[in-house]
Amino acid sequence: MRIVIAEDSVLLRAGLVRLLADAGEDVIAAVGDAAQLIEAVERHAPDLAIVDVRMPPTFADEGVRAAIEVRRRWPGVGILLLSQYVEERYATDLLTGDNGKLGYLLKDRVADVGDFVEAVRRVGDGDTVLDPEVVAQLLARSRRRDPLDRLTAREREVLQLMAEGRTNSAIAHHLVVSDGAVEKHVRGIFAKLDLAPTDHDHRRVLAVLQWLGAP
Prior knowledge:
Elements: E1 2-6, H1 10-22, E2 26-31, H2 34-44, E3 48-52, H3 62-73, E4 78-83, H4 88-95, E5 102-106, H5 113-124, E6 128-130, H6 132-141, H7 153-163, H8 168-175, H9 179-192, H10 203-212
Parallel strand pairs: 1-2, 1-3, 3-4, 4-5, 5-6
Helix pairs in contact: 2-3, 3-4, 7-9, 7-10, 8-9
């Protein structure tokens, strides 16, 4: 099977290439951003694209939006999304349709190499492979009224500290984590509250306003 990998982490990208090559699969391109993914699919016509949901430059939803574009332009290419969390806003769009060849796995729950390779092959063969947590969150989506319900416990904790006026460094000190970990949680908060980057709005303030307005 001919595979394109789109993953911004150099180490993870190299690991996936080696893992799949050892399993006998043909990785024809491995790229680090969404634009390169589109170019690679157009140039190589792969059977499957393995795509990280969050990619440069904003690390919000570039990967999944590129996957949707691939799905629209080349419906015969299978899509296997890898993510740290369930991107509900776009997962439903990807699941729409009856041509299969779709997978959505959470990185933290992929613990067995054999299971991962099997999922890759099943998607390439035309099946749909979804992490049980993805299924659970999508089923619960229709019952949610408050966007804050999308946040993890840690993200809610970070947002509460943001509402107290603390900087990322102060939040990191309070939670005893790195500044990078806080930045990652903040990006997750913005994505889950549908706060896309703009030239006019301050996403940090808008997120805090949603928190303060919650019942």
